[in-house]
Amino acid sequence: MKIEEINVDEHYGETGEVLTDTQKKRGLLIHAFQKIQKEYNYLPEEKLYELSQKLDIPLSDVYSTASFYKHFYFKPRGKNVVCVCMGTACHVRGASKVLHKLEEEFGVREGETTEDLSMTLEIVGCVGCCGLAPVVTVNEEVVGDVGPKKVNEIINNVKVEDTGN
Ligand code: FES
After folding, report:
1. pTM score of the predicted model
2. Bridging pattern class, strands 80-85 and 136-138
3. Which atom of ligand 1 is least distant from the CA of 132?
């Protein structure tokens, strides 16, 4: 997203008539964050700075608004996001072993991204398919009943995906 293309009045149209300038600018932040994150996969510092300048909102306010929402990221994320469910059902059925195997294989801890940006490893609470525990999500795909064989499949798929084979 080109920050310079942001036009506060155009964004709101007639609705903007009932809003103050400050309300309009602040309301635009989330929309801008979404666009930036879609393009870069995270919110680069320089883009947040440009946004703060463009909208005349202190950088600290821009950061605090973005950090209020869990789905905005401040560090580069991997091309693949592998998420291990650590909810109760998955934990009881061996999610920790799955997590450790993935950490060992990719050389990252949970919350980290591989240096080549091929993969980000995360943990999450219940993803709502406890009957399939232990569960891992790979990007948007849910993989259930993850044992040693499926962990290896996940690892291979992420590596193949990364090399484009
Ligand atoms: S605890 Fe993992 S899906 Fe519910």
Report:
1. 0.77
2. antiparallel
3. 3
